[in-house]
Amino acid sequence: MSTAMNFGTKSFQPWPLDKGSFPLDHFGECKNFKEKFMKCLRDNRFENALCRNECKEYSECRMERQLVAAEPLEKLGFADLMDGKSEAETSFDEKATTGHVHGCWKQSSPH
Amino acid sequence: MVPVKDRIIKVTFNADVHASLQWNFRPQQTEIYVVPGETALAFYKAKNPTDKPIIGISTYNVVPFEAGQYFNKIQCFCFEEQRLNPQEEVDMPVFFYIDPEFAEDPRMVNVDLITLSYTFFEAKEGYKLPVPGYN
């Protein structure tokens, strides 16, 4: 990687990992969900948007096994995937208020 | 965070190990297609093929450099010591998203490929891991 003499670019802080360390799944407890997600990617030409359900399931698995802090799924923007409502795109400020966002889903309407 | 659906970005993945680290380390997908504002999941895999436990620690890099400021890792396995026992193999996920402001930066208008590279080192006392930053 070349030396970056970019004095004019806006400064950037690497975003801190909000939940601290991210334990690995040493016992492979969520391996099945990972395999489902990877199969979804391969079946859908690696389009991430088409595999949000599998991503959600993997995240749920991690939460259930306490590999990551549990959060209510509705708060994580999965409400549309859970009860079949159409997705609502809204501006969202979770990053600003909590300092982090959660993975693999679009944020639904704030409640 | 509103996904910018008309800006499809291909993210590709590299995996490297430092010469002294006897791990096998590779991405589990060659690429994934995302849009700014949409969070994504990708996997690496690491195996310790030796008969001794080995502790590794990784850093990451993003090219092009200017796109890196929009690349947000929600959670990943980097910067933390990770121990693999003999013959142990583990999946390593990365949750990330590209900031929607990427789509509004005129310097990014021709950027449709971003490459994420992870490099694992053997964790040793006194070793200072180079942390990427754009300051």
From TrEMBL, chain B:
Instruction: Write down the membrane topology.
Output: Single-pass membrane protein
A GO CC term assigned to this protein in UniProt: mitochondrial inner membrane
Gene3D superfamilies given in the database record: Ctag/Cox11 (2.60.370.10)
Q: Which SUPFAM superfamilies match?
A: Ctag/Cox11
Q: How would you summarize the oligomeric state and partners of this protein? A: Interacts with CNNM4/ACDP4. Interacts with RANBP2.
Q: What does this protein do?
A: Exerts its effect at some terminal stage of cytochrome c oxidase synthesis, probably by being involved in the insertion of the copper B into subunit I.
- Listed name of the protein: Cytochrome c oxidase assembly protein COX11, mitochondrial
The encoding gene: LOC101603554
